[in-house]
Amino acid sequence: MQILYGAIVVFFLFFGARYLQDEPPVAVHYFVIALYFFVILFEFRGNPFSRRIYVMLALLLLGNALVQFFYVENGVIFGLVSLLFSWFALQARRRIPQ
Prior knowledge:
- The chain crosses the membrane at residues 5-21, 27-44, 53-70, 76-92.
- It comes from Desmospora profundinema.
- Keywords: Membrane, Transmembrane, Transmembrane helix.
- This is Glucan phosphoethanolaminetransferase (Alkaline phosphatase superfamily).
- By secondary structure, this protein is mainly α.
- It has helices at 2-19, 24-45, 51-71, 76-95.
- Helix 1 (2-19) packs antiparallel against helix 2 and helix 2 runs antiparallel to helix 3.
- The longest helix is centred in the middle third of the chain and has 22 residues, at 24-45.
- It is globular.
């Protein structure tokens, strides 16, 4: 399972770097999704980040969703994915002990 999440992180980092020159908002989307999977990977490994990191990640994903909705042509799917992952980040925060 950890190898799968690690591969997903590398996949999104690769596509983020690929789109960085031509479409920066799409590249930011890929980088933020890679960050989400990186944080979740550490949670699955048993070393979760603090609860504040999950809140900041949720806010970052929410901001990314707004950018995708309003600044990217045909970015509705990217925005919905960011909103969904933002919700998942908030739910993951509740699983972390204080």
